[in-house]
Write a structure and sequence with these properties.
A two-stranded antiparallel sheet has the order 1-2. The protein is elongated. Helices cover about 75% and strands about 5% of the residues. The chain is mainly alpha-helical and about 280 residues long. The chain has helices at about 5-20, 30-40, 45-70, 80-110, 115-120, 125-155, 165-185, 195-205, 220-225, 230-240, 245-275, and strands at about 70-75, 75-80.
Length: about 280
């Protein structure tokens, strides 16, 4: 067997080790159907997650914004409400995705033992991982669409590029959902879920949601630039304010990495936990 023949085989083996396609049965839609039926009776819980960023926008944007006035950006001065609204949109997408992919998944995995029954049927770990992540993505997307409509009514969209804010918010939600589910597979007790809340709060406050990155010392700026929410906010803020540049693709690559790593780790962990 020649080296030219061996090279494609080595690549295929490496791909299967990274992305466990052999654990995919092509029935992700079954997970989505089950989630949709389950949430028909608890739609109010989903609805309440939308109001938190809206309250922040009204309290900070209109209340505090009346004292601050305008914020200087590359595109020129903008109203404070228009500055923080994209950050709150990214936060809304993050919250909608992360809580579904952590607390809900942990309960199904450790207490309801729901996934054991699913894998006993014609489903694989990748189907379960993708199904739960996509459902989290749908929830984050619903929050994002509703919040963009609020921004539109309040006149906070300064560019036609803002039309891309919703699909970009879906990418942000996808990244957080994938990583959130991967982290959840390592959790042992429900009390450990507090670690996620503890991590989300400072990330929400310091990821340029309410003020520019330049207010920090350089050492803190570097730390903030490593946070995923920072990249989501910079993406959406750039679109909403018309600050479109090639640098936005770097933020997209950040989330592409989150999605790839999250889906792979979640699938592998579910395989180890449920098929051992």
């Amino acid at each position: 067997m020649t080296g030219a023949t061996l090279q494609p085989q080595v690549r295929t083996t490496l791909l299967l080790r990274i992305v466990p396609l052999h654990l995919y049965a092509g029935r992700t839609h079954v997970i989505l159907e089950r989630s949709l039926l389950a949430y028909q009776r608890s739609w109010l819980v989903v609805l309440t997650g939308f109001f938190e960023p809206v309250f922040y926008l009204l309290a900070m944007g209109q209340g505090l914004g009346s004292l601050i006035g305008q914020v200087s950006t590359v595109a020129g001065p903008v109203a404070y409400a228009a500055y923080i609204a994209p950050g709150l949109l990214a936060t809304s997408a993050m919250n909608g995705a992360i809580f579904d992919s952590t607390i809900n998944v942990f309960f199904k995995l450790k207490y309801a033992k729901l996934y054991d029954g699913m894998l006993a049927a014609s489903l694989g770990p990748v189907d379960v991982a993708l199904g739960e992540i996509v459902w989290s993505l749908i929830r984050g997307g619903l929050y994002s669409v509703a919040f963009v409509l609020v921004m539109l009514v309040m006149g906070l969209l300064a560019s036609w590029w803002a039309l891309l804010a919703v699909p970009v918010a879906l990418i942000v939600a996808f990244g957080f959902a994938a990583v959130g589910m991967a982290i959840t597979t390592f959790m042992k007790t429900f009390q450990q879920m507090d670690w996620i809340t503890t991590a989300l709060l400072p990330m929400f406050l310091f990821s340029t949601t309410f003020y520019p990155l330049g207010v920090y010392p350089r050492a803190v700026q570097i730390l903030v630039e490593c946070l995923p929410l920072y990249h989501g906010i910079e993406l959406i803020r750039g679109l909403c304010l018309g600050l479109v540049s090639p640098g936005l693709f770097l933020h997209l690559l950040y989330f592409a990495g989150m999605i790839g790593v999250g889906v792979t780790v979640a699938s592998r962990r579910l395989e180890r936990l449920l098929l051992r």
